Amino acid sequence: MICLPDDAAVAAVGDLGPDVDVIEWDGSGEPPPQFTDVEFWVPPYLAVLPDAATIARAGRLQVIQVLSAGVEPWLDRVPDGVTLCSGRGIHGSTTAELAVAGLLAVRRELPRFVDAQRAHEWEQQPRTGSLVEAPVLVLGAGDIGSRVATALRAFDAEVAVVARHARPGVHGMDELTELLPTQQALVVCVPNTPQTRGLVSAEVLAALPDGAIVVNVARGQIVDQDALLAELGARRLYAFVDVTDPEPLPADHPLWDAPNLLLTPHVGGGTIGWERRAYRLAGQQVRRWLNREQLHNVVDAGY
Ligand SMILES: NC(=O)c1ccc[n+]([C@@H]2O[C@H](COP(=O)([O-])OP(=O)(O)OC[C@H]3O[C@@H](n4cnc5c(N)ncnc54)[C@H](OP(=O)(O)O)[C@@H]3O)[C@@H](O)[C@H]2O)c1
Asked: What CA dihedral angle connects 67, 69, 70 and 74, to 10 degrees?
């Protein structure tokens, strides 16, 4: 038995054949009684997650296919023996798009021009920076990081990519420290794991040169937010963040008023039309499972 989040998912996944029962649960309240027979579950995106005891009621569960790329809230809820699959690929292009949009907005000072437009002022000076010939370090070489790197190269930025495993075109983490002092921007695209929490530390930020831009579209916990606040407060660094710690950011949090900062409320992935990509992946994964093929996006290293 398959459990999908809503009518739209059922319609998008399409006919799975006469032998496959499909039920719906939007993740709120009590699961339907048939949940105990569910073997493949696609929970809704960004719902308040059911607790481990509720999930454990699905005693025949084999696969949980989530619709977010980040899986950290799920890790301690997945029953033993159940395969967790991430939504990697659903939100990568839109999140990479926002990373580049935010980086460009800060680099080309679009917030200043918005203010000038509102005041009807034709202010060409001072000149803005540009990404052309600018060294930019992309941290993460996965779905988002590789797309960001490709897009930035189209603007003639000098892109260096750092990830967990060194390989042609990708530096290993042991090279991060020596690369930082020459970068004009650092774009964070790694998952939230015990190894990456606080990875962009006060020391990493301090190693960036004056005027560098920090972009975080991954997770707030990866950047030392207090250290970033201090750098912004000193007007030494600039930042674009789509993710914060905590989320939602409380109305009285100092990050809202930090200078040199552009902030969006975790909207990298959730664009109009994301469901199309999400339910396409869900349908492909259900069919792989029914055909006993290898599932994609299996979470085996904490992400
Ligand atoms: N803002 C949003 O709306 C939004 C949307 C989607 C995703 N996200 C976040 O973005 C994250 C990345 O997504 P993705 O789809 O690009 O993930 P992905 O394809 O799995 O790529 C992850 C990358 O991070 C690298 N990495 C993992 N652990 C590392 C470590 N300890 N040190 C250095 N690099 C490490 C991996 O290195 P290797 O290549 O060497 O393995 C890989 O290049 C997600 O986990 C999610 O938290 C945010």
From this structure: 40
Alpha carbon nearest to ligand 1 atom 30, residue: 164
CA separation for the pair 181, 295 (Å, rounded): 41
Q: How far is CA 156 from CA 52, 130, 186, 225, in A?
A: 48, 10, 16, 30
The alpha carbon of 177 and the centre of ligand 1 are apart by a number of angstroms equal to 19
Give the position, in ligand 1's atom list, of the atom nearest the Cα of 270: 3
DSSP one-letter code for 243: -
pLDDT band at residue 290, thresholds of 50, 70 and 90?
very high
- Taking the CA of residue 98 as reference, the ligand 1 atom at the shortest distance is 1
Helix (H) or strand (E) segment spanning residue 12: helix 7-13
Q: Which atom of ligand 1 is nearest to the CA of 268?
A: 3
* Alpha carbon of 217 to ligand 1 centroid (Å): 10
| pTM of the full structure | 0.97
User: Is residue 270 exposed (0-12), middle (13-18) or buried (19+ Cβ within 10 Å)?
Assistant: middle
| Whether residue 219 has its Cβ less than 6 Å from ligand 1 | yes
Report which of 24, 17, 92 is spatially closest to residue 289, judged by C-alpha positions. 17
Alpha helices in 163-215 (DSSP H): 176-179, 202-207
How far apart CA 206 and CA 16 sit, in angstroms, is 54
Alpha carbon distance 220, 264 (integer Å): 12
Structure tokens at 229: 């606040």
The per-residue pLDDT for 48 is 80
**Across the strands, what pairs with 160?**
137
For ligand 1, say whether the CB of 144 is within 6 Å of any of its atoms. Answer: yes
152 in Cβ contact with 201 (< 8 Å): no
